[in-house]
Amino acid sequence: MMPHPQTIQIFLPGGDPQGIRVASITTRILQVIEVPRICLSAFLAMPEADYVGVYALLGENEETSVPKAYIGQTGNFRTRLKQHSEKKDFWNRALISLSMTQSLTVTHAYYLEWLAIGKAARAERFELENGTAGSKPHTPPAMEAECREVFETLDILFTTLGYPLFEPLLRSRRQTSTDATPVFEAAEPSNISSDEEGVTVYCLAPGVEGQARYTEEGLVVLSGSYGRSEVSDSFSRHNYYRKRQNLIDQGALRIDGSRIVYTRDTLFKSPSPGAVYLLGRSANGWFEWKDRTGRSLADVMERKQ
To answer: DSSP 3-state assignment of 145?
Structure first.
């Protein structure tokens, strides 16, 4: 779907912006209710707790701090969320999707669950507790089309609330398998407008070939970028060294002989960490990342020193 102007309403039932939030697009029937775990009892007292729909439980892996999600469907939110409150420890927020007109059926919910798990797995932003999406549920063509339209709204509302669970880091980036060594596409940057895909930049040095895009979310280092596995003595004592090791433990970075390789597109909120992990030393990413003409990212973004 092409982006277009939309009006999104966020209602605070308790008046607390950190509490329950209800998001909707004013012209559509789908509603997403964000429920902090501490507010679960308040949601269970709402009439919507008896609705049919799909939901996502969000938290993080306690060992790796990687964002973690569980996606499910239910014919009754009250019953299912009570079960999850008793049996699942990792989550601290639930995103609950339902129809304000109660027009979603269990058949809709099964298809939406399958679609959501598949989209989230491909986006690779969250570790999924679900595993695979399983086989596609049998759904009449007309209902399938309806579900895809509903999911479009669900996706927009999740992202608006701050949880881009289904959004790839780069929308048009083709996902490659991480089973084999990724191929770094270092030739010419693609002619993608900065409005759509961000600014393409490179980190180049002896033994280092990194490519990234600076987007509205931060710096996305592309899969296949590689750098030096050995690090400087000062770097080994820096906090970055521990964070780099965490990425290795998570599988986002892999040691391959003298190289360290990004196995998947990886987002950093600032430009420096992505360059530091490639170079194996302290670095200022605003000046290490450069476009194909040699201008630093700081110059490209007209950032003052």
So the answer is: helix
Residue 198 is encoded by which pair of tokens?
């961000």
φ/ψ of residue 265, rounded to 5 = -55, 130
Q: How far apart are CA 252 and CA 143, in angstroms?
A: 38
- Non-local CB neighbours of 113 within 8 Å, separated by 6+ positions: 54, 71, 72, 73
What are the average pLDDT values for consecutive 10-residue runs of the chain, which has 305 residues? 85 96 95 98 97 97 88 97 96 97 96 96 92 83 95 97 94 46 39 59 97 94 96 85 91 95 95 95 95 95 70
Residue type, 142: A
pTM score over 0.85: no
Query: What is the C-alpha to C-alpha distance for residues 283 and 290, in angstroms, rounded to an integer?
Result: 13
Q: Which two tokens stand for residue 52?
A: 């049919």
Query: How far apart are the C-alpha atoms of 4 and 178, rounded to whole Å?
Result: 34
